[in-house]
Amino acid sequence: MNRSTSVAPTGTPPPIRHLHTLGPTGTNLEAASHEWLRRNGIDGTVELHETIEAALEAVPADGSHALTACAVYPALHTLVFANLHRLRMVDSFIMPTHNMVLASSGTAAPRRVASHPAPEGLVPAGVGTVTVNSNSRAAIECAEGRVDGCVTTIVAAARHGLKVLRDFGPVPMAFTVHQVVTA
């Protein structure tokens, strides 16, 4: 539901029709954005960005665009508090993520794994970690041979032809929606 605290000049809350979030395609945030639009009966769009921070900078302050974030996104608290003058959390909801997996391009025991910081705890002990901007980016890094494993979503692993070594299942996750408003 859209519980906006910002008010358009007409006195009615502006309807959110466009969500900006973390890409590339296959992220849990992309799925959450589409789910929020579906739950709210909105025929809207989802635009993907390299980072949540880049997504925030791309959100126009017209009320029809908003940012979708995740409660476990690294430094979300910094992003919110540094932008209190223009960022309003208007909704939050819980939905399961895609299954989170440890995947590889073929090896059974990867030595270097790409991971977004949020699920980095799923990297096996003793394995080197390369930090990337999203779960989908981790799959791309693995598929392109820059690492031999990744922590990613099952959707991104399948999209890039990776072998699932361990399926951690879906994770119940809190997602947030933020409108950018003029000060």
UniProtKB/TrEMBL annotation:
Q: Which SUPFAM superfamilies match?
A: Periplasmic binding protein-like II
**Superkingdom to which the source organism belongs:** Bacteria
Q: Where is this region: Disordered?
A: 1-27
User: What is the protein's name according to its record?
Assistant: Bacilysin biosynthesis protein BacA
The organism that produces this protein has a lineage beginning with: Bacteria, Bacillati, Actinomycetota, Actinomycetes, Glycomycetales
